[in-house]
Amino acid sequence: MRKHPNATLLVVAVLIVAAFAVTFLALAASNSDQDDSATVEVYYPFGLFSPGTLGALPTSASRTVLDSLGFESISMYQDYSLGLTKELGVSWVRMDFPYDGYGFNEPSGYLEKLRNSGIEVVGCVLPINSFAPADMAPFQSSMRDLILRNPQIKVWQIGNEPDLSWENPDDYPRFFFAVQQVIRETCPSCRIALAGAGARWPSADAEGWNMSLGIYDRIIGEIARQSGDDKKPFDVLDMHFYDFNNTETNMLYTMKEYRKLPQKYGLSPDIEFWVTECATHTGPLTWPPDSPDQTEEQQASELVTRFVTMLGAQVRRVAWARFYENYRYLDVEGGFFDNSGLIYNGLGQEAARGIKAGTKKLSFTAYQTLISKVNGSSLVHRIDAGKYRFHFDDDREPVYVLWHAGGVDPPLEIAGPVLVTDLEGNTTEQMGEQLQLTSTPVFVEKR
């Protein structure tokens, strides 16, 4: 995930201990647009962040992961990850390209395999450590070569999380324009994504949340100022979401506030909103302290409800942050990021429970079911909290994704015989008016 900072982990810790929870939860509830009904265009939105990589793990930990899975090389691990990516059914992945001062870390063979599999790659270029080089010329030259070597990549993201990981986030616009120039000159048809916002949750960290929002306010304001008449200096605004279960209210409020920033500075309304990193965990955590012990069903339910809620709030693309578990991520064993994958690594407390490496969690199947049910839809309509209807351009019946978020009764329009599919993909037939919703989402289609 290459979260340079321990700051990303601190965000998770802050979720537990901050003193501002009550105030901001009320604020979120009063300002969120979660009760608004809307119809939103969608298009093959489901992705993964960094499958097949072992970034931010100590070298010894990377070797331990490979050994646990029975792989002798990173190439074998990439092939394993590619197979799972195809099995899951995602249409795109975000891959990071860190710069080492001489060139970019670029898994050329793996990129070619992704291309041959029809999986789109969104490329994110990263400077050394947590700051942009004073002399951007070598970076620009390497960036130009990177684009030319990878003509299949049509979306380039410039940096990552300046609000959390940069020593001087106000220097980000300089980095942005230096890279933007190269992208536009080398690949005029390519789209440009702003560095993803690490953000923070208003329910738990009022001070940190406002700090991150303020940083992006300044960044976007300065980019808009320097862009002059160019009202679309970037095509995508990206955010990242790491939290525990039942985060929809604050998530919607946070997205709403970040979405205002391009509009605030007069930028194009056509700028898209993406979430290229997202996760929640299973099991007990060693870090941060006092974290909730979450079940596989809770993680799987949160994945589906979070992604569906995002799509209903005009997020155009969503991605889970890897589907395998890390090990000693940022040298913290058993922490949040060691337990938020969709597949067990068989290490730590899992080994004591007899869970073998490569065992899929319910969340893997839930994501697979979500994709199989709604991929290819053209519109999603938010009927009410926890009630969404996906439409298709062909003769296919709409697919409803439903869960208890204020009421156990399904929408009134669901009556008569329906097919109900659970997170594991099991389908049963029943009468729609007899369906009772729970916190676990289901997929419903009229017969």
E-strand count: 15
Write down the overall geometry: globular
Question: How would you write the strand order of the largest sheet?
Answer: 6-5-4-3-2-9-8-7
The poorly predicted ranges are: 1-35
**What structural class results from the helix and strand content?**
alpha/beta
Describe the structure concisely.
The protein is α/β, with parallel strands linked by helices and 447 residues long. The protein contains 13 helices and 15 strands.
Your description of this structure?
- This protein is α/β, with parallel strands linked by helices and 447 residues long.
- The chain has two domains: 7-376, Alpha-Beta Barrel (TIM Barrel), CATH 3.20.20; 383-446.
- Helix content is 36%, strand content 19%.
- The chain is built from 13 helices and 15 strands.
- The strands form two sheets. The chain has an eight-stranded parallel beta sheet.
- Helix 11 (296-312) links the parallel strand 8 (272-279) and strand 9 (315-321).
- Helix 11 packs parallel to helix 13 (362-374).
- The longest helix is centred in the middle third of the chain and has 22 residues, at 206-227.
- It is globular.
- The relative contact order is 0.14.
- Residues 1-35 have low confidence and may be disordered.
Topology (elements, then pairings):
Layout: H1 7-17, H2 21-31, E1 38-41, E2 46-49, H3 59-69, H4 74-88, E3 92-98, H5 108-116, E4 120-126, H6 137-149, E5 155-160, H7 162-165, H8 172-186, E6 191-196, H9 206-227, E7 236-242, H10 248-264, E8 272-279, H11 296-312, E9 315-321, H12 349-352, H13 362-374, E10 379-384, E11 387-391, E12 399-402, E13 417-421, E14 427-431, E15 442-446
Parallel strand pairs: 2-3, 2-9, 3-4, 4-5, 5-6, 7-8, 8-9
Antiparallel strand pairs: 1-10, 10-11, 11-12, 12-15, 13-14, 13-15
Helix pairs in contact: 2-10, 6-8, 8-9, 9-10, 11-13
